[in-house]
Amino acid sequence: MADYALLPQFAWIFLWGGVVLLSFTGWGWLAQRLLTGHPPAADWGLAAGWGMAAATVFGGVTALVHLVSAVTIIVFVIAGALYGAVVLWRQRMPAPTVAPGLRWALALAAIGLLARYAAHIHYEAMSCTDDYVAYFAYVERLLQTGTLIEPFGWRRLAAYGGHTYLQALIVAVGTIENAYLVDRGLSVVVWFGLILGHFRNAGPLRPLHVVVTALITVVIPVPVMNSASHVTGIVLLVTLYRTLSPLNDRPAFSGANLWLVALAVAGAATLRPQFAVAAALTVAIYWLLARPAPVDWRRYGLALIKAGALSALLVLPWVVLLQISSGSPFYPLIAGNHQPAFAVFEADIGFAGKMAFLWAFLADPRVALYLAPLAAVLLRRRQKAATALYLASAATAVITALSFTSLDVDGLHRYAAPLLTAAFSVALAGLIAEILPAGPPADPGLRRVARIGDVALWVLLLALMPGTLWRDADRLRERWNHRIAGDALHAAYGDMQAAVPAGQGMLVALDHPFLLDCRRNSIFDVDIPGVASPDPGMPYFEGPATLVEYLKSLDIGFIAYRDFSVPSGCLYRRDMWHKHLQGGTALWREHARYYLDLMDTLESLAAGQSTRYAAHGLRVISLP
Q: Which residue has the higher pLDDT, 568 or 263?
């Protein structure tokens, strides 16, 4: 039976998410005014994309100076929302007459967007191996300490932190159960606005434009697994595409727009390394394709250098913070705290093996289908921005595949999917904008073909939308009463941490480290054993004494861990890693060696050290 006591919390987060969306739009319009000197003129989707990028930049600045908190986040969101409301009020116009077909298309799309948004207010994917030990813990650490220092975290090393700040915009006034809303709900709405705004800029809006936009953003699924950046990456890459496309008849590399290009690149770069590569390549390729004729190469080349320098300037706070946290300003180019003995995802399969793996990846129907429009885009000389994003995304997907050779195609697909989906969506939108003119074709034969196409797209949307709505309703129903951690677990973690004196450092190997209070103790969360740790590296396969010596050198005096013999939880359970060691893939066998060694070492330490706490399957030991 549904617990209707959750309705006030649900309604509050539903409304707060709308305020965040309005804030993105407001900050985007303000960025356009401040950076270009022109009044806000962008459509709300493009403005929201710029605002999301601005939020990641602001998050980097505040995180570097330890000022992230619920208060600063609320002030940031409210300020942007107020400016957005003012712009909307000034731009208000008499309600236009909307044709019935367009009205029905907009209503159907709105239902799909609301269902997707509502389904992810209280949500959790089955990815506790990533979210519990890393992504949720990062959000809580950012809100509790004002910054993001995780020297033992490989996932921290692999991302600057922009997506974590975006998640904190919701969690600051909600709970960790709301951490999915930005990526799976809000970002879908912004993506819809970006594509629809592209159609509106190309000419009068037609019902088929709305139908295509809904199919692209709401109906076609995006492969996702955990709470990390998926749709937020799509949004910022599409924002970059829209920014590079001619804006108010001013080229992207004019002085007025360079800052907006840099803002979109910086926002994408703060999310994940592959988005940084794709964004940088997109700008470089577009720079080559869109050069004027004749071209002043000195001035034109200087514009590209300025765009790169401005992007780097906006990302700089996150770069410095990653160096402080994990010893690397540019991972994976500089390894930082990544220990060389553990390759994580790259398998030594030789050149021929890599080529075979790459071919299997590119030939997979899920990848080949999204690469297919590239051929059409290359033939359309007007599609310079779409061509640049498509080529950049395809190149980044290839680089990703060659870097993650220990994964299977299924595992690799979710890393490349946001890149290819962003390129696919803008290419399809660009082609449709050319194919669907403002009015019906004059030629009778073309008119019949256009009518058949219109009917086919309507039928496709009407056939697929009910299934989409059903899945979202099922998500909402399934997760309505779900809590990631109940009161008993919260109490157990609180009692365990109370056994450690305030201010002392703790190394933790726990299933729910996001329940710990990072303000009370210095928490060092072992993300994936063996991958990341401060130099000279956390010792493995060397026995308890060496580990104690290493931890004491970092002023870590306590270790908290769970009962490894209990066959539950996600990562720290002995039975699961024994199975991987005996019959898993090469990647999981390597992981198993480190997990089992850490478990053996901690249990050996517990036999000879003082136990400070042992209850509810949790244990704390103090080091000498």
A: 263
